Amino acid sequence: MVENSQQLSNSYNEQGYFVIRNYFDEAQISSLRKVVLKFHELWKADNKEFYQEEAFNSSLITGSEYLPVDDRTILFDFISSKKIMNVVDAVIPKNPAFMNTQLFFNPVNPRQKDFWHRDCQYDYDIEDQIKVILETQVLHLRIPLFDEPGMEIIPGTHKRWDNEEEYNVRQEVNGKVSNDSISGGKQIALAAGDLLVFSADMIHRGLYGLDRLALDILIFDSAADYVDYVDDDCLPTQSMLNKIADPRLFINTLHLKSMACC
């Protein structure tokens, strides 16, 4: 690894993100790209109107709707690989759990602009957002499959609430809109093979352009109440689990699901 676990942990705790350049080799990215592009083409065909008018991402890539067992197995093997788990363990050392996968791409609609947000704003009111960013932990592990403009983030906002400028832009109030620039924003261009790890609840936005196609793996702390967000179809079957070298992420999620239903 480029940095040791303690350095990664410190970077994440202080800033809410870190980047490891050239973390994956060309063979790993090529294998991943082939499976993801297969999913993407089938998803686009099945969601043609949505894709043309407003889509900028899709989800449930590990599910069975578009990919056969062999391709899903490639994804599960990648998600549970030593390179991924080393990073996950550095940030969530106790019982990390798999939530979902997402795929981010450029919108077809030229009127769509990139926008500042915290992921939690789509599920919680303001009071609960303030609470969530202090108490829970959801990670995005972003793997760009082609070189792209990357992300713009506000470092440190994973542990503090918005200042006035950030709030006005993110909430689109007081004459601001969500794609306005924010002072303190840091742009992080990404190349195929890089890994960006960032807090889902920090203020951030994806930057559109180039051949943007990035696979995000979402991981959560088992202590947080997020198991309801997990789609059963996106988890490996028992026969798949038996072949995964380090299946902890999936086993933890399955355990949480079994506890929730009883």
Structural overview:
The structure is a single chain. With 262 residues, the chain is of the alpha+beta class. It has one domain: Jelly Rolls (Sandwich), CATH 2.60.120.620. 36% of the residues lie in helices and 20% in strands. It has helices at residues 5-15, 26-46, 48-53, 69-79, 82-91, 126-135, 164-171, 238-241, 248-260; strands at 17-20, 57-59, 96-105, 138-144, 148-153, 186-190, 195-199, 204-206, 213-221. The protein is globular and about 55 Å long. The N and C termini lie far apart (41 Å). The mean pLDDT is 94. This is Phytanoyl-CoA dioxygenase.
Name the CATH homologous superfamily. Answer: q2cbj1_9rhob like domain
| Oligomeric state of this protein | single chain
- Large-scale geometry: globular
Rg is 18 Å
- Spans of at least 5 consecutive residues whose pLDDT stays below 50 are none
Number of helices: 9
Class by helix and strand content? Answer: alpha+beta
End-to-end CA span: 41 Å
The CATH architecture would be: Sandwich
Integer tally of domains: 1
Order of strands, widest sheet:
1-7-4-9-3-2
Per the CATH scheme, the topology name is: Jelly Rolls
What is the CATH level 1 assignment? Mainly Beta
